[in-house]
Amino acid sequence: MKFTAYARTQQGTGASRRLRSAGKVPGIVYGAGEPAMIELDHNALFFALKKEAFHSSLLEMAIGDKTETVLLRDYQSHPWKPLVLHVDFQRVDETTRLRKSVPVHYVNEDQCEAVKTDKCLINIVMKELEIECLAQKLPEFITIDLSGLKKGDSIHLRDVQLDEGIKILRHGRKDITLVSVVEPRVEVEEVAPVVVAPAEPDKGKGKKDEKQNRK
Fold it and tell me: What is the pTM of this model?
């Protein structure tokens, strides 16, 4: 993806406030050289942030008469207004090694036996994975095929095959469940107990017995 940025000369809280009032977003680019202060069009950035690829892939930033390869590192938004307040980018080159969370795309769920035949549900446990690799090898996303899943199956981190040079960070965990097949719940219909009201005593018979006792 490609976007346009502009060099920013003024710094400080007051300057940033004026930029935001003018529909701009202050930002910074660091790494692989001197940090550079930049500004971006707010609306263009706001809608770019809604795209998954803008968060997880290498970006081409046009600034002045040159283009730099960068990676989105952070951004700050207003607590309740749809406003982007600040954005950070990192320059990368062929030697840059980085850690980044990458989204996981699960495909062919509707084609697996567990869903088509056994009417099971697919429980997605992990929606992104943190990886370490050279910037040039950074995948936009990781695809996992669910078409082979059967009842009782699950997919673990050890089952994921990535390109050489891409390492999934486990953070001390031996294995991680990414997907599990959940069998459909069998609902048992509850039958309400039948309550039988106690029989009322025969008042006439009681009076007759009382008369006989008196005799």
Answer: 0.75
